[in-house]
Amino acid sequence: MQREGTDDPRGATGGASSGVIDDGRDAATGAETVAATQPADTEVTSTVSGALPEGEAEIELRGVSKLFKSRTRETLALTDINLGIRNEEFVTLVGQSGCGKTTMLRILAGLIKPTDGEVRIKDRPLWRGNTRDEAALRELGLVFQDAHLFPWYTVEDNIGLPLLLRKVDRTERRRRAHELGELVGLQGFEKALPRELSGGMRQRVAIARALSYDPEILLMDEPFGALDAMTRDKMNMELQRIAGATGATVVLVTHSIAEAVFLADRVVLLSARPGRIRSITHVESPRPRPLEATAEPGFQDKVVALRRQLIEDEERVERQGGVSE
Ligand SMILES: Nc1ncnc2c1ncn2[C@@H]1O[C@H](COP(=O)(O)OP(=O)(O)OP(=O)(O)O)[C@@H](O)[C@H]1O
Ligand SMILES: [Mg+2]
């Protein structure tokens, strides 16, 4: 693991100078942190590498940076991101608003090209020059914060839309939509229009649609952000079940630290702009997890440690005059 300086002299777990186990993880929280090498007032931002050993990653970001340029401004959204994600792994991305989470997901999805570095899917580069590898893209399913359903399409037609675009015939589309409707708990609503559904149900349609063409990798940007707490809990349980049933690799962006820890094998925390990997927290307990797992002390420790890191990050930005780099 590549480790550099840190803006947190106590280690990213906020004072846990003891308990850092051999592989660089904190024994209590599972966080990969950075050794205490900087005096208290230095403003060096830590970068943790999430790279995996050669051949272990299904999706990989190697030295990825993204600079947005317009006529009036340049924004360095991400810098030096190294992250490998294993087949069937569940990774969550957290960090302050504007730290580059969506940008990272869009880079993974091949929607935007990194300025520097490389994206690899199943050991193939996603980009060759300015051309995307369409075969690699076919492995990806996307779910965004808003369900983005077509209001005049029924549930089954919305679910089957990616199949229509892939020229799959109507009978097969119906069959698949029915099967997925059941998987996400929408049976009986196949003929309903989006306006007849609750917010949670619309998100389920969006998830079913993303699953319709059997993507091996699901990329989800705050998919449950607009839902109430109870529906969100239900969707979390549902998503765990679906991930298990389909064997999908999942990368999910969320603003909820508790949700991030509950769902993930690894929680990747990005620092304020430009986004760098500030810490990686391993959550060892097997998935799917019952809701009761959130009450366990180990779970709470991780949530508190991550919250602390976020607060420290915010304070760092404030010390720099409220503007991240
Ligand atoms: N297409 C774009 N053109 C110019 N700047 C952009 C573009 N997309 C994002 N940015 C900038 O990049 C930075 C990161 O944006 P991004 O949307 O990735 O943040 P985020 O972490 O997803 O935030 P949030 O939690 O609010 O969704 C922001 O400063 C944003 O203004
Ligand atoms: Mg975003």
Query: Could you say which small molecules are bound to this protein?
Result: adenosine-5'-triphosphate, magnesium ion
Helix content: 25-40%
Total count of helical runs of at least 4 residues: 8
Low-confidence stretches: 1-24, 34-44
Q: Which sheet architecture does the biggest sheet show?
A: 7 strands, mixed
Structural class: alpha/beta
N- to C-terminal distance: 25 Å
The 3D shape can be described as globular
Strand content: 15-25%
Spatial extent as radius of gyration: 20 Å
Mean pLDDT: 85
User: Strands across the major sheet, in which order?
Assistant: 1-13-12-4-11-10-9
Please write the string of helix (H) and strand (E) elements.
EEEEHEEEEHEHHHEHEHEEH
How many DSSP-defined strands? 13
